[in-house]
Amino acid sequence: MDTKGFTDQVDNYIQNLRSAIYQPIVERDAGHAPIDRQKAFLLLLPMLNGESWTDEMHQASLAIGAIHTAFDIHDQIDSTDASSKEQQLMVLAGDHFSGIHYKLLASIPNFHLIRSLSVAIGRINECKTTLLQEPPNSIEDRLQLIGEVESACIIEFYHTFGFTRYISIVEVLFPLIWLIESGQQDLNRMKFPHLAPNARDTEKWIQQLQENLDDRLHNNFYLHKPLVDQVLKMAKQGASKLI
């Protein structure tokens, strides 16, 4: 599959996810829900690489997309001004998308996935609390927690459906992209801006993680070259350069 094929597949997934989470009142009051294209691409990575993809996997991927959207909405809530009308609408929108997540999961007779995702969501919330209230002193420990926040649900999806060989990519890629974006974006718009390291440490860790990812990609025998190229592009330029 070429780059256009990847783009079309990700676009199709995002369209299906928007249909699954759509609710007119939420759309009217809270606006268009943000969908993280980077997470969608990595969630679909096995399918884009030619792995067998069943209806159950598709439904599970939509459920995970819904909870990712719920997390992203809730992450925008300002705890110092949570009583404003706009903030309250964001809380309700996030809760709505979380409800859609459980509704989609309920349609899948896979209790292992339901349990594992529940554990992953709990772990994500624990990591967020730690990062916001008592972040570890070392950058390495912080990056590990950030990686868990971003990748936990995707990794559980991989475990459930036998795609574990892809885990080594996402567990490095997410903290790497966070570091890249910490130097590219307005800190007020990124997750955990208070944890952004200084420029020297950022450069050091970006180089280290890029080398780690390069080794993992170039030593694998399963990921097709166009996908390797896309992942490397993300690792060097951030999620804004995603297909």
Automatic annotation (TrEMBL):
Single Gene Ontology BP annotation: menaquinone biosynthetic process
The protein, known as: Heptaprenyl diphosphate synthase
Gene3D superfamilies in UniProt: 1.20.120.1450
InterPro entries according to UniProt: HEPPP_synth_su1, Isoprenoid_synthase_dom_sf
Matches recorded under Pfam families: HEPPP_synt_1 (PF07307)
